[in-house]
């Protein structure tokens, strides 16, 4: 089996990087949209909506991502739905991401001073108008850095999906390690791949954090 | 008919009975100053008038808009009631002009050009015509509070509520804000204000309402109340601030 060249290894790993990137982007975009809905539910005036969103967040933050993936992947086949590893992975990571983003963003919304709610309420703005024109623009500024920071967690979280058979970077790596008998080289390259994806994000996040603190509020 | 009518208002904060049956009428063009010690319920009463505080019992009516206990639809009422806060509460991400334009544009759905001319007129009224494009953090406290007044006026409220609007200001900035309020009063604006500026309350107010332990303890013409308080509590209060 040693007719696999280093170039073959790198080429296959690069393919894996693309799948990891694709899964991360999918989870981040869909998770962001779901997280936004969760945020609105979490601060809604309807009590049952708030409780439902809270329960959702508790469940997905309080259990390992791996268990969530198992339950989605194996559970779906129990009820007769054959989800491909890709679909199960995308669904699992989306749910996971939405729970965290919803909660991060709620914190940002709640850090906007109460006086902003009162002033906009006294001007007769509805709840959604308050959010759209007054609260979210201010919360967004606070949210950018922790959101980009969390995206690093999403990228690393995709590694777990290799266990349900989705062929991303880690899965590609283990298959190559088995074929080449060079696990140290292969997994070293795998780690390098993750680092190449995550490092720019964390640098970006740090820079945003600094500029959010250093500049004026508008 | 009175512009603002408050009937039998009761409010609790937990087990604390903060408003114990308030009855109050405010006529159109009247300037009412609410005075009293902290904790007497004057701010809570003021904040009830535009629904920022819920109440358990009673009725508030402003220019025909009724507000019942537990009511959640406040949009019509709030369009008739403007409010200015102690901490200004300007929107920091919007310029002074945008702060003033926001509600006419979003709530009244007026065309943008019209909102802008309203905003310019209102800022001119409070003496800040040249600050249309300035952001709140570029303005002094007194200027911010004047923008906040312009913002409330842009909705053409029937009554303006002022909640200790000079308490957060440096002493030298108080007079510019009071001058604006005085002009509004002279133009016939109906005002209900919680204030610690007794001299101002006496000068501008038509009616003084002294609150004590959740009740209206005494009310009437400012001069009468200041010179001939009928209750020892009011005499005491006046004595303590002079």
UniProtKB/TrEMBL annotation, chain A:
GO terms for biological process, alphabetical: amino acid transport
Which Gene Ontology cellular-component terms appear in the entry?
A: ATP-binding cassette (ABC) transporter complex
Chief subcellular location equals: membrane
Q: Which GO terms describe its molecular function?
A: transmembrane transporter activity
Domain (ABC transmembrane type-1) spans: 17-205
The alphabetized UniProt keywords are: Cell membrane, Membrane, Transmembrane, Transmembrane helix, Transport
Where, subcellularly, is it found? Cell inner membrane; Cell membrane
> NCBIfam families from the entry?
HEQRo_perm_3TM (TIGR01726)
Name by which UniProt lists this protein: Amino acid ABC transporter permease
Automatic annotation (TrEMBL), chain B:
Please indicate if the UniProt record lists Cell membrane as a keyword: yes
Gene Ontology CC: one annotated term: plasma membrane
Q: Which InterPro entries match?
A: AAA+_ATPase, ABC_ATPase_HisP-typ, ABC_transporter-like_ATP-bd, ABC_transporter-like_CS, MetN_ABC_transporter-like, P-loop_NTPase
Q: Which UniProt keywords apply?
A: Amino-acid transport, ATP-binding, Cell membrane, Membrane, Nucleotide-binding, Transport
Q: Which GO terms describe its molecular function?
A: ABC-type amino acid transporter activity; ATP binding; ATP hydrolysis activity
Q: Does the keyword Nucleotide-binding apply?
A: yes
Q: What Pfam families has UniProt attached to this entry?
A: ABC_tran
Q: Its membrane topology, per UniProt?
A: Peripheral membrane protein
List the SUPFAM superfamilies hit by this protein, alphabetically. P-loop containing nucleoside triphosphate hydrolases (SSF52540)
Places the protein is found: Cell membrane
**Superkingdom of the organism of origin:** Bacteria
Tell me the ranges covered by the ABC transporter domain, including all copies.
4-238
Q: Which family does it belong to?
A: Belongs to the ABC transporter superfamily.
Q: What is this protein called?
A: Amino acid ABC transporter ATP-binding protein
- Per the UniProt entry, what species is this protein from, by scientific name? Denitromonas iodatirespirans
